[in-house]
Amino acid sequence: MTDSQKGQVVRWTRIAYGEWRLHAAATDRGLCYVGSPDMPFEQMEAWVRARMRGAELVRDDAGLAPYVRELTEYWDGDRRTFEAPVDARGTAFQQAVWQALLGIPYGETRSYSEIAALVDKPSAMRAVGAAIGANPVLVCVPCHRVIGKSGAMTGYRGGLGMKTKLLELERGGQA
Questions:
Q1: For the segment 96-148, what is each residue's pLDDT rounded down to a tens digit?
Q2: Which of 1, 9, 122, 131 might form a disulfide with 54, Cβ 3.0–4.6 angstroms?
Q3: 136 closest CA partner among 30, 62, 2
Q4: pLDDT tens digit sequence for 51-79
Q5: Per-residue three-class SS string for 26-62
């Protein structure tokens, strides 16, 4: 455990939006986790325990209200970008991939090979796919905007149903 992890508090809440029920968590540095719909609290708890050993999980609905507000505005079609800080922790390669995802404009998609080229690893599509799959902050770090080179819908930690709804929302439909 590093000194920065001793006594660290990870605040969390449960978000209910339409048919989705999901958990979100934040550190003092920003949103660190947005979970998949209908997954149990234990999934988020295990994620925090694995990446922030020694951190204390504390429910804080009021403290996470600004994050919930931005997500809700996005799902309502009233927000295209997120302003709240993100504390997505990962390897240098994962960070590079996640930064590339943040550069995909609202309503557009990119292929895994395009993301690989953006991070200067044009032959590392599988590694890019793994980094995208490890994205801890669904929606805000828009991994749903990555599709197969042929245009086919590909895997998504939140499930293909959620991915489809997010892409439809961004193309003018509703989530």
A1: 999 999 999 999 999 999 999 999 999 999 999 999 999 999 999 999 999 99
A2: 1
A3: 30
A4: 998 999 999 999 999 999 999 999 999 99
A5: EECCEEEEECCCCCCHHHHHHHHHHHCCCCEEEECCC
Q: pLDDT of 160-174, one tens digit each?
A: 999 999 999 999 865
140 is catalytic: no
Burial code (b: 16+ CB inside 10 Å, e: under 16) for 113-145 equals ebbbbbbebeebbebbbebbeebbbbbbbbbbb
Question: Is residue 175 classed as helix, strand or coil in its secondary structure?
Answer: coil
Nearest to 128 by CA among 107, 144, 111: 111
DSSP state of 135: -
pTM for the model = 0.90
Between CA 148 and CA 77 the distance in angstroms is 25
